[in-house]
Write a structure and sequence with these properties.
Number of domains: 1
Mean pLDDT: 84
Number of strands: 0
Order of helices and strands: HHHH
Structural class: mainly alpha
Largest sheet: none
Number of helices: 4
Helix content: 55-70%
Shape: elongated
Low-confidence stretches: none
Radius of gyration: 17 Å
């Protein structure tokens, strides 16, 4: 019989993954979706790759649009849009 480990119990394993999955994990960290690669890969497994890809694509678009606005010197009360997004995602 297979049972899930209780929260907090973890085991280190070494696996080889495609480079695009590592890049995806790095984006998840950048966007505040995960605090490290281990957490990113665990989220990919738990939530499923299609769900994670959809969320990362959303944040890619948000950051891209924020950068476009910054290039046109668009400002809001709090300062740069990218900085505001980074502060929001890290808290």
């Amino acid at each position: 019989m297979f049972t899930w480990c209780t929260k907090g119990m973890s085991v280190t394993v070494s696996i080889k993954v495609r480079k695009e999955l590592v890049r995806l994990a790095e984006k998840m960290i950048k966007y505040g979706m995960a605090s490290n690669r281990s957490q990113a890969f665990n989220l990919m497994i738990a939530r499923g790759l299609p769900v994670i890809l959809k969320e990362v694509r959303f944040w890619d678009e948000v950051y891209s649009k924020a950068e476009e606005l910054e290039k046109t010197n668009y400002r809001i009360r709090h300062g740069g849009l990218t900085k505001l997004l980074e502060e929001d995602r890290s808290s």
